[in-house]
Design brief:
Elements lengths: L31 H5 L12 E8 L2 E10 L6 E5 L23 E6 L17 H15 L6 E6 L1 H13 L5 E5 L5 H15 L2 H12 L6 H15 L10 H8 L3 H7 L29 E6 L6 H10 L3 E6 L6 H4 L1 H16 L4
Parallel strand pairs: 3-4, 3-5, 5-6, 6-7, 7-8
Antiparallel strand pairs: 1-2, 2-4
Length: about 350
């Protein structure tokens, strides 16, 4: 299986805050026993897993979700990147959210590994994915009193688009490691990050791209050695988490290439996201919003700081040690900031 672009191609070539305060209205948060209990839950039999039917113009398909914990006021739906990657990018959340008694829901979007994977390019549109998220929300019983939406990379695009249409359903929005403009992302990748590389290496990568020779093993080799370990996940290849390797293995390249394209230096060619730009719409987001940027990200951290100032009620979380997967390579800053945001919104202190 081949792997492409912004969430890391052919990696397989190289690798064979603890207490919960009372709520401001005097209600106590859930106990640890209540948080962990499956009693009287309709997903007890499956250990929290629900296959949710999604209605589309091309028929009805099932998407996979798994709920962790119980908390009536703090429920976080996780939108993975890609498109076409999986919820496995978020498995490190298991190490942080449970002790804070934050309920969270893993979710594989339609076309991703644990959900149905129809072979129809007409399904892979941002607009249809937005309606899918809304159907998932309804099926899980999430609402404006408890619903936090966290999207990273492509998931950040999807989270923004969802908020533009359905923000009245949200308690809080978290945009992680995603700019609000693909043209701006392209410019940052090609004018800033690329030239930071060894000039000879960058020249060879660009030559392979210009020739559209993306399946050349040399292309993946150069990117992994000189780009991924600098800007995607800042760890030696042998230390990359097993969950990340699993999401590569499970990637759906049809969805990924159709929407994102092949190139590691921006979204180009016929990819459907290449002209996506919502900079002028950010001012319409009124729900409390956290925007996360990282120093070494594939995305411009200054642009993401600007996004947090452009929305009506925003906060910026900067990860000085992080890259695109800052939930792994800058965990302390990432999770402290995300948890603080959720707690502040929950207690009406935002």
């Amino acid at each position: 299986m081949k792997f492409y672009s912004w969430l890391f191609p052919a990696v397989l070539l190289f690798i064979s805050c603890q207490t919960n305060p009372q709520k401001s209205d005097g209600q106590e948060s859930t106990s640890a026993e209540q948080y962990l209990s499956f009693e009287n839950r309709d997903d007890q039999f499956t250990g929290g897993i629900k296959m949710i039917p999604i209605t589309t113009k091309k028929g009805t398909f099932n998407v996979w979700t798994k709920r962790i914990g119980n908390n009536p006021t703090k429920k976080v739906l996780l939108l993975h990147g890609g498109p076409g990657m999986t919820h496995e990018l978020y498995e490190c959340f298991d190490g942080y959210f449970p002790q804070e008694e934050i309920e969270y829901i893993y979710y594989d979007q339609l076309g991703s590994y644990y959900s149905e994977q129809p072979d129809d390019l007409d399904l892979w549109t941002t607009e249809r994915f937005v309606e899918e998220v809304e159907q998932v929300r309804q099926a899980l019983g999430l609402d404006a009193s408890n619903f936090y939406l966290l999207g990273q990379s492509w998931g950040g695009i999807l989270a923004m688009e969802y908020a533009f249409k359905y923000q009245d359903n949200l308690r809080g929005l978290i945009i992680s490691n995603m700019m609000s403009s693909v043209p701006e992302y392209n410019a940052y990748a090609q004018n800033v990050l690329g030239p930071q590389m060894n000039p000879e290496i960058y020249k060879e990568i660009k030559a392979l791209e210009d020739a559209e020779d993306f399946e050349n093993p040399r292309y993946s080799e150069l990117l992994f050695e000189h780009y991924y370990t600098e800007h995607v996940l800042r760890m030696p290849p042998e230390d990359w988490p097993e969950a990340i390797m699993r999401t590569f293995k499970h990637a759906n390249n049809q969805v990924y290439v159709h929407m994102q394209g092949y190139s590691e230096f921006g979204i180009t060619g016929d990819a459907t996201l290449k002209d996506w730009d919502v900079r002028d719409q950010l001012k319409n987001i009124a729900v409390p919003t956290l925007v996360i940027g990282a120093q070494y990200d594939t995305m411009d951290p200054e642009h993401m700081k600007w996004m947090s100032e452009e929305v009506q009620n925003g906060r910026y979380l900067y990860c000085p040690n992080g890259s695109h997967l800052s939930q792994y390579d800058d965990q302390k800053n990432y999770f402290e900031g995300v948890i603080r945001f959720i707690e502040d919104v929950d207690q009406n202190n935002f």
